[in-house]
Amino acid sequence: MKKFGLIGFPLGHSFSKKYFTQKFEKEGIDGCRFDLYEISQIDLFPKILQENPELLGLSVTIPYKEKVISFLDQLDPACREIGAVNCIQIRDGKLTGFNTDYIGFKNSLEKWLSGIKPKALVLGTGGASKAVVQALKDLSISYQMVSRAESQKANFITYQDLKNNPDILDTHHLIVNTTPLGTFPNTEEMADIDPAYISGKHKVYDLVYNPEKTFLMRSLEARGALVKNGLEMLELQAEAAWKIWN
After folding, report:
1. What is the pTM of this model?
2. What are the residues whose beta carbons fall under 8 Å from the beta carbon of 115, sequence distance 6 or more?
3. Residue 65 annotated to the active site
4. Could you tell me the residue ranges of all domains in the chain?
5. What per-residue confidence (pLDDT) applies to 150?
6. pLDDT in tens, 75-123
7. Could you say which of 2, 3, 65, 153 is catalytic?
8. Which CATH architecture has domain 102-230?
C-alpha cells in the first residue's frame, strides 16, 4: 500500500483527503491511500514517519509550513527562496521539501488576471504569504504586505496604515488574502479592510475555499469587486504535489 497524507493542526475539514480519495477512485489508481496526521506540535513529525514506513509523500498545512523545514534533508531551490514548504517527497528515507502553493497560485492568478498587472496588497505574513509573494515577484506585480504588527521590513504596512491612508486602496487594485480569517466555522470574520474604499476596479483573491464565498469576498463584491476563492489554486497545487510524489 502506497501512503500519502497531510500534516497540520487542526485538520477538521481537509480539502486534500477528499480530493485525493476521489482522484484515486475516479482515475482507478489502486493501492494508494491518503490519511490525515493531525499533530499538535511539530516535534511529533518524526513519529509519523516512523509509524508509517509506506509514506511516499506528505502535504503540509498551517501551522507547519515553515517549522517543518528543519526536519528535511533538502529543499527544492525555488522552495528555498520562498522559505515555506507545503509538499514533502519521501524517497529512500530522504525528505525533500517543495512548494506547490506557489505553482498553484501563480498559474491560477496569471489566468485570472489575463495580462493585466495591478499593484497588490497581500493580507497576512504567514507561510502561505511567502508563496504568494514569490509568485507576484515572478509575474512582475508590485506588492505591499499588510500585517497587524509593525515591521521594519520594506514593503510592509499595517491595517492601521490602510485606515490612515485610504489612497493606498485606491492605487492597489489586487487584494490577496493569505490569512485563515473567514474559514469555516468562523465564517463571519475578515481582515480589517474598509469596504467603503473598494470599487469595481478591485480584484480580490481569497486563498480560503471553505466557505465558497468568504465574508471578505461577499463584503467587497457588494462594492463591485471581482472575487475568487482558493479552490482552483488548491486543485492545481494538489496535482503538482501528485507529480512530485510519483
Report:
1. 0.89
2. none
3. yes
4. 2-98, 102-230
5. 84
6. 998 898 899 999 999 999 999 999 999 999 999 999 999 999 999 999 9
7. 65
8. 3-Layer(aba) Sandwich (3.40)
